[in-house]
Each structure stands twice: as C-alpha cells, then as structure tokens.
C-alpha cells in the first residue's frame, strides 16, 4: 500500500464502527478486539439501556407495577454506562486517526509483541486507578446523581412508589423554597443560622487556637510539653462522647452548669435546651472546644518552623510585638494553613454530629418545619428520615453542595499556596 495515500480521514470514518479503522491501518488484532468489544456491548446492554432511558424519561406508566425509584436508578446507571461507552468510542476514533497519520508519514506498524508491550506500558497506570475509579463512580457519583434527579421530582410521603408514580416537576421544588411561606421562612431562617454558625464558631476556634499557640510558643513559657498535651486532650476524646457530656451539662433540669454554677451564683437558670438563642450560644461554645485543639496543633508546628533570625532582625529594626505578628507570624501561618482553614469552614457548614447529638436541632419553632438550631444538613436529615420530603431534601442538598463548592473554590483560588502550586 502506498503510504502517502493512506488517509487518516478514511480511518476515522471507518472507525464509526469500532475496529474497522484499525483494520484499515493494518492493526488487525486491535481492530478485531475493538469490534468484538463493540458487538458484545451492544448485545449485552441494549435491552438494559433501552429500559433505562425509557424509565428515566417516563418514570413508569403503571402504578404498583412500575417502581419509579428503580427506573430512575436504572436510568442513571444507563447514563453512566453510556458515558464509559462514549469515552471508549472517542478513544477508538482518535486511535484510528493517530495510527493513520503515522502510517502516512512512513512509520512502520508495531509488531504484535511490540504492540502488547506498548499497550501495557501506557495502560498500566489506568489499571491501577481503575478499581478506585469504578468504586468512586458507583459509591459516590451514582448516589449523588440519584439525589440530583430526585430534586426535580415530586417524591414525598404522600406520593411514594410503588403505590404512586413519580413525576418530573422541573424547578418547582426550588421555587417552593422561595415562594411557599412555610418553606421560605424556614429556609431563610436555617440558611442564616447556618452561615452565622459557620463563620462565628469556626472563626472563634481558629482565633483561640492561634492565641494559645502564640502564647505557648513564647520563649518565656515553661513546661511547654505539658501545656501542649493538656490543650490537645479535647482532640483525643471522641467527639460524640464530648457532645453527649456537654448535652448533660447544659440540661435545663439537672445540668451541672445551671445547678452548680448559675443558680448558686446568680439565682437563675438559663434555658439552654428550650430557648433557641441560648441553645445556639451553647452549640458555638461546644464547637470552639471541640475544634480548637486540632488547629492549635497545626499552628504550633508552623510557629516552630519560623526562623528565629527573622524575629531577631525585626527586634534590631525596632519592631513592636504587633508588627512582628502582622508581618512575620500571621503571613507564615496563613500561607501554610489557608487551604486547611478553608476546609474547617466547609466542615462546620455541614457539621451534622454536634447539632443532632446535642439537641436534635431543637427546640421547635412556630411556623417552621425545622428546629431552632437546625443547620441545613440537619434539616435535610429531618426532611429525609422523619417527614419523608425526599424531593425538598434533595433540592436543599444541591444548594448546600453549590454553596460549599463555590466558597471553597473561590477561597482556594485566592490563597497564595494554591497559586504557587499552579
């Protein structure tokens, strides 16, 4: 065959049926394997994909016979399988085109042994990450997609399969959060408290950790190891144990804080569990106690890595303690820990454990379907497992994901450590 007449476009066109382009390029074994894989895929998944896409668009037609949840799950799996198939299909087209270009330029096709060796060298990393990718798709991506699709349906306690069929409702669930009075008031109240909770609790725990780390790192402080050990102890105790202990301490009736401290000193107890304001104060205090030891340990390591020569040079220039903190200590700490601190904010935004274990998001608030201390994630939990408002819970979950992703991406882009990695 004349090498100059070997046309890459012809190879690409033939590869519309996988394998034919490779055969045209005289890669007979590869072409045969590609064609057999293509044929096996059609024979194996045709019926599954057919039902999957039908179910995804219709969500069933006969109540009690068609389960919309199963059809939705099969439709999502069909989308994932189609995504893998399209990836393979595009790679098949690119492979045929690239081989044709090489042949046109006079390259000799690899022998069978060379082809296997070359393929093994190129595919070995993908073989290593393949099982992890497979698990990621079906353990993380599939449930996430299922949740996203539920947000556009009418799946709730009163319209539950298989007795009823689900219907696509578009953006109705999202508009209900802003137009229906009970949903609007609850959503705005919970969202505002979630933002306040995230900013105040996280900022306080970081500030406390920074102050303690600076004080303990001062050369005049003795017994540093003992002090650091004591300050890190709250981190060593399991979080749920600490939260349950604090829930008992803050109990209105028998809690030690009211019984042994406030009543003897001031003659009055504080309704920690029944008043939303005081419950929020208690939660912020507990989170500061739980969160500062970890940040303290990080800051302590950073402070010990800062060269003492810089502080000596600053002393020679007559710098004050505040100037040394502002120009040496603080920039170094933020540069090294900014991504980690951002994740502290993101973690507290979704800190379900402390809200649920302390008082299950209570107390109840009139005119709302969420508790006085519920944050978005605990509200989603209640909507899912207590009132079975799956569609609204899914819609709120999407909003949570978008808020966290936007905030984290924006802050990461602004940090110097991220920019230097780029």
Detailed description of the structure:
- The chain is an all-alpha fold.
- The chain has two domains: 3-150; 174-421, MetI-like fold.
- The protein has 17 helices and no strands.
- α1 (8-14) runs antiparallel to α4, α13 packs antiparallel against α16 and α15 (376-385) packs antiparallel against α16.
- The longest helix is centred in the first third of the chain and has 39 residues, at 112-150.
- The protein is flat.
- The two termini are 48 Å apart.
Please describe the topology of this protein.
Layout (H helix, E strand, L loop, with lengths): L7 H7 L5 H5 L3 H31 L9 H37 L7 H39 L21 H8 L1 H37 L6 H13 L2 H11 L6 H11 L9 H30 L2 H9 L4 H29 L2 H8 L16 H10 L4 H25 L1 H6 L1
Helix pairs in contact: 1-4, 3-4, 4-5, 5-16, 6-7, 7-11, 7-13, 8-11, 9-14, 11-13, 13-16, 15-16
Features:
422 residues, mainly alpha, MetI-like fold, 17 helices, flat
Fourth-tier CATH superfamily name of the largest domain? MetI-like
Q: Report the CATH C-level class of the largest domain.
A: Mainly Alpha
Query: Would you tell me the structural class of the helices and strands?
Result: mainly alpha
Number of helices: 17
CATH architecture group name of the largest domain? Orthogonal Bundle
Number of strands: 0
The rounded distance between the terminal residues' Cα atoms is: 48 Å
Q: In CATH terms, what is the fold-level topology of the largest domain? A: MetI-like fold
Shape: flat
Query: What does the radius of gyration come to?
Result: 30 Å
Give the helices and strands as they follow along the chain. Answer: HHHHHHHHHHHHHHHHH
Helix content: over 70%
- Beta-strand level of the residues, as a percent range? under 5%
Number of separate domains? 2
Largest sheet: none
Low-pLDDT segments, ≥5 res: none
Average pLDDT works out at 88
Subcellular location: Cell membrane
Function: Part of the ABC transporter complex MalEFGK involved in maltose/maltodextrin import. Probably responsible for the translocation of the substrate across the membrane.
InterPro entries: MetI-like, MetI-like_sf
Family: Belongs to the binding-protein-dependent transport system permease family. MalFG subfamily.
């Amino acid at each position: 065959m004349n090498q100059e007449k070997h046309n890459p476009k012809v190879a690409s066109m033939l590869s519309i049926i996988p394998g034919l382009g490779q055969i045209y390029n005289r890669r007979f074994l590869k072409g045969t394997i590609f064609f057999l894989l293509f044929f096996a895929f059609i024979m194996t998944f045709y019926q599954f994909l057919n039902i999957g896409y039908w179910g995804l668009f219709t969500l069933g037609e006969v109540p009690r016979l068609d389960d919309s949840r199963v059809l939705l799950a099969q439709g999502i799996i069909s989308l994932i399988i189609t995504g893998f198939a399209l990836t393979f299909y595009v790679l098949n087209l690119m492979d045929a085109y690239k081989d044709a270009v090489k042949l046109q330029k006079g390259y000799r096709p690899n022998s069978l042994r060379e082809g296997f060796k070359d393929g093994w060298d190129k595919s070995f990393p993908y073989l290593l990450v393949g099982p992890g990718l497979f698990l990621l798709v079906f353990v993380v991506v599939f449930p996430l997609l299922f949740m996203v699709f539920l947000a556009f349906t009418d799946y709730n306690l009163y319209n539950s399969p298989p007795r009823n069929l689900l219907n696509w409702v578009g953006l109705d669930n999202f508009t209900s959060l802003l137009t229906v009075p009970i949903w609007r008031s609850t959503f705005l109240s919970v969202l505002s408290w979630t933002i306040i909770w995230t900013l105040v609790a996280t900022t306080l725990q970081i500030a406390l950790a920074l102050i303690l780390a600076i004080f303990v790192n001062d050369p005049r402080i003795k017994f540093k190891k003992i002090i650091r050990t004591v300050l890190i102890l709250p981190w060593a105790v399991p979080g749920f144990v600490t939260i349950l202990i604090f829930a008992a301490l803050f109990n209105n009736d028998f809690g030690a804080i009211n019984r042994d401290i406030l009543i003897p000193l001031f003659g009055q107890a504080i309704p920690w569990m029944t008043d939303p304001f005081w419950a929020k104060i208690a939660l912020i205090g507990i989170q500061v106690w739980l969160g500062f030891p970890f940040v303290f340990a990080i800051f302590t390591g950073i402070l010990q890595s800062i060269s003492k020569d810089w502080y000596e040079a600053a002393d020679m220039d007559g710098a004050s303690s505040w100037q040394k903190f502002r120009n040496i200590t603080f920039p170094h700490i933020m540069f090294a820990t900014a991504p980690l601190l951002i994740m502290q904010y993101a973690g507290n935004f979704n800190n379900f454990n402390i809200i649920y274990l302390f008082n299950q998001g209570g107390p109840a608030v009139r005119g709302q379907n969420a508790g006085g201390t519920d944050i978005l994630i605990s509200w989603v939990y209640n909507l899912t497992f207590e009132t079975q408002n799956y569609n609204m819970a899914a819609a709120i979950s999407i909003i949570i994901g978008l808020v966290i992703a936007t905030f984290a991406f924006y802050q990461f882009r602004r940090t110097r450590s991220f920019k230097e990695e780029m």
